[in-house]
Amino acid sequence: MSNPGECIAVIMAAGTGSRMTDLTHQCPKPLLPMGRFPMIWYPIRSLEKAGFSDIIIITRQGWHDQIQNALSVDGIPVRARLEYIEIQDSDEGGTADSLRLIADKVKTNVLVVTSDLISDCDFSELMAVHRKHGSSVTALLSQLPTTLTADTPVPGFKSKQRNMAAEKISIGFDANNMEHILYWKAQIDMEDELIAFSKKFLDRFPCSRIQSAWTDCHVYMINKFVVKYLQEKRELNTIQGELIPLVVRKQMSTYITDSPKDDADMNSPNGDGKLKKDLIDFAVKFDNELISWGKNLSLTSNTFGQSKDAPQKDLIKCYAYRQTSGFCVRANNIAAYFEACKQMPRLITKFVTTKKSDELPNMPESTSIKPKSQAGIVGADCMLGECVTIGEKVSIKKSVIGKHCKIGDKVKITNSVIMGHVNIQESSNITNCIIADSANIGDKCELIGCIVGQNQSISTMSKYTNEVLSNTSQMMEVPLE
Amino acid sequence: MAPKGKNRNDVLEEEFFLQAVVIADSFNVRFGPVTYKKPRALLPLVNIPLLDYTLEALAISGVKDVFVFCCHLGEQVREHIRQSKWQEGGSQMTVTALMLDSCRSMGDVLREIDAKSLIRSDFILISGDIVSNMDISLVVKEHKERTHGKDKSSVMTMVYKVALPGHRSRSKEDAMLLIEEGETKRLLHFEKSHDKRKIKIPTEILLEHEDIIIHNDLMDCHISICSPVVPTLFTDNFDYQTRDNFVKGILINEEIMGYKIHLSIIRDKYAARVSNMQTYDAISKDVIARWTYPLVPDMFGSSHKETIKYGRHNVYCGEDVTLARGCDLQKDVVVGRGTCIGSGSVISGCVIGKNCQIGENVKLRNSFLWDNVKIASNCDIDTALLCSGVQVLDRVIINKGVILAWEVVVGPDVTIKKGTQLMSEAQKDDWDDPNMSFGEDEVRSESADGEDKEGQEPVNYGSKSKAYPYKQNVDSEDEEEGVVLDQTWGISASESDDRASEEDSNDSYEEDDGGSEDDEAERGGNLDDEEEEEDQVDSSLGFIPSVCMMERNTAFYQELVDTFVRANNEKITEDNLTLEINSLKHAYTVSIEEVIHSLPCVLLDMASHEQTLPVSVNDRISTFKKNVQLYSSLLRKYIKNTETQLTLINGLGDHVIRQSDLRPRLPLLLNTLYDVDVLSEGAILRWYNSTQFPSVNESSRHAFLKKLSQPFITWLREAEEESSDSDVSDGNN
Asked: In what order do the strands lie in the sheet with B198-202?
């Protein structure tokens, strides 16, 4: 049992899910149900498919047991060996801080995966890109699913969609090799009216293509030397926000070999640490370990035939695997979570092997449907959990329903996500909603575009549109009838 | 139904009448003395006038109707067209020459077109000095599809060719940054980039467009397809002088006028403009190497009723060529009709015109000889342009980048320095610049005056010579556009070579420098006493501070400070100031290194010049900053390459060592110079990292300066992490 290429895999599962509003109030984000499995199962599965058998999961303090319990429930197939590392609750660290915890384990590369990635992407493709180019950092980029546009109604928000541009990143690629990342800047950081490009950059990469339609999936293959650098640079907190842009920029670094020796002398006695080692120094050290002469003999140098100003060596390289087909969503906000859940009926076959998919139909045998409820009312684009009870004349379309739900007679559920142990009583109409665990919806309720928090009871005859119904807001907003 | 039928007619008509507008004037003086007697469009490129290449390119593309607009020396162009094959019966293409003596720019020409309403449909706008084998009609089609289809607002499609930075046929002054919208090929941003270290683009381009392509890999072919509205737009905006003005105007006013410009990028065809000597050279070589097929000498010559034989190693020979036994045409040589080459002559990479006579044992490399050139025996000519009727007498050595204009005679037994440009008549004050039929005569003659004074010292071009130096006039028109390039042909090529081999030459350069330092160390005692005392106080430096890189000529220095102060007070223009500095240099017989060495110190000392009281350091620094800003372009004139930059840094270093109160400010001073692009980070880091010194004193001096400049170097190295304004900033370390 070993991982491909001695690469270690890390799942970052320490995020609190602050953008998920009240859904994560009582449930850790990695354990939010998605289809039949908790969210974190999907990245584990993706890694398993890519051949990983040892996976490190970095979680928050106290989540360890919860996650372990959730994953050890029967029917959840996990074959990889999972190792848990907890970070202290008091640490408000980012992903880069988490990565530092496991820095010593990195032998060659580390594959960092976020716990909220729902994707049918093959990580081995990403690793292939990484190896092909001798990359320092390789990122997984994907185009947003076409169904997830600004017009998609999102539960709990009156406005159709929050500002999507806020998360957009302008990513520049080398037009001759679109896998090569040259530029990386979040659009939210573009405050100045002008953006400067140095002549040196333009001479070295004469034709670059900047696109902002890509989503960074927070899956990175990171070389050992970058991790080592990260260990020294304590001020870097996040991988996406700080480390990646830095590495992309540092590609322009040139290493001057005849750097004077007294630099080191000047540095050590003073002890100011002013001349902190730069990323390029790590890259050089790493490069020296390789058979660098072989590289020098190669005629396929990237700088061949280009401006003479270009440095002779490309030591830091940043590439991307661009997923153009398939599905890839980071369920880090309501809209994406909602979308990913609704895609589950279709996607589940990509995560469970074909043999098992027979055992896991979208409607398990344990579903009990009252005889009068005609077949076909539960659409093929739906997915039901185990032991769901469905009443008469129920219509369920484009929805995902968790285990042990009870759905009363004449209930209509359209385009909604319903988690486990939810009780929906007669004649309710639920459209575009997310209903969290153990909620109780009364008779003849009409909920459109709402989020119902855990253990909520919605009284009969209630009508809500685009609201968040949870503990905190209930006090003020839900009138007692 | 009637309108539909009419539309179809329109389309038919347009297809039948593909029109082209050829601007047979460049409105600049890049070719120096050469275009004095002949317009650029008629200069021979591989023995065929440039205009013929352009017309042939249009004929290949199926153009039916060509208007050639002649401005400077237009009569010659008209005569040329009158005698060309296009005037013969059965010619597919009608070529009409129009004289527009009054036009001073391309904008004027287009306004004239609008006034005469010559154009009815989309037309090709092309400069008269293009060599191209592409089918322009494909681009016209592309343009038409766009304008008749989804994007009716497109007014122009510009043709660009892929050429990486540093490509030899890419004219440096045309270097530009283009931003193209990914799918639509629409031009979003256009910026000349040749003199900038950083190029700033508006953020909104990135925010508003999901997919953009930033091109620094294109060269302008000066071919564009224009909608009929373009001449009207030139009329409406009378400030548009050039096509670049127009493009910028359209882009800026895109929201108001709603017009768009698109790009067409060619990869596998050839199209390039002869815009200066460097491109003339490169394109000639391309023609010889048959990149421009079918526009190659052996095929194209036949249209000029000549038979040219094509041999191995790209050697082309016309009829009646006499090659003496033992002469060697190595490779890439074109020899025109009736030329004689004497024995023992070695020729490579040359174009030789008709009826030339080349003596014995002549070495010719990378040179261009036009018709009726006579070269006597035992000459050595490298990278030179010899116009028609030039005579080079015995044993003349001509160095790189020399241009001998019409009928110049040089020799015997002389060496022509590199970059020399000679004409056969003296340049007169009232000389009516033939290439600039436009105004600004006063400014020009004035500066020419100054140049003449400076160049009074008689230069010997041989006892039988008939040669007068040509000074390039300050072309005010160009300066407005900021495209003045000081580089001349041949020299610029070697300069870029220098840049390329910077790393290699690094060591040797510093050794050279070291040699002179030794000398100076001996004479180091001549410094100002005051300053010496100051230095002696600070003996903790660990070296003798008087060991400066260069001894200062006090009288010269004082005069230089006075000059600058006067220039500042009297608001003397930069050009005149340059002249004054140059004359000072001659008067005191100091080297150019010393001038550069002194410049930063002068800018620092200007503050303390007039006041009798000592001026505070802060005042001096702020004056320095102000002055550097003010004179940055002047500094850049002197400081062009890394070597001069190193000299400048050393000058600054010396000054700082002399004046201890400035020592902590060294990083600030360096930064100021760095900010105005006088110093490049490469030079600074090279200086910082230089390790070889001739003496212990030298190296300890360097170590001391290094220590002083440490904060700035650290900042420079970490600039990319800390600088917030530059996103893709320069590499460090």
From this structure: B198-202, A194-198, B726-728
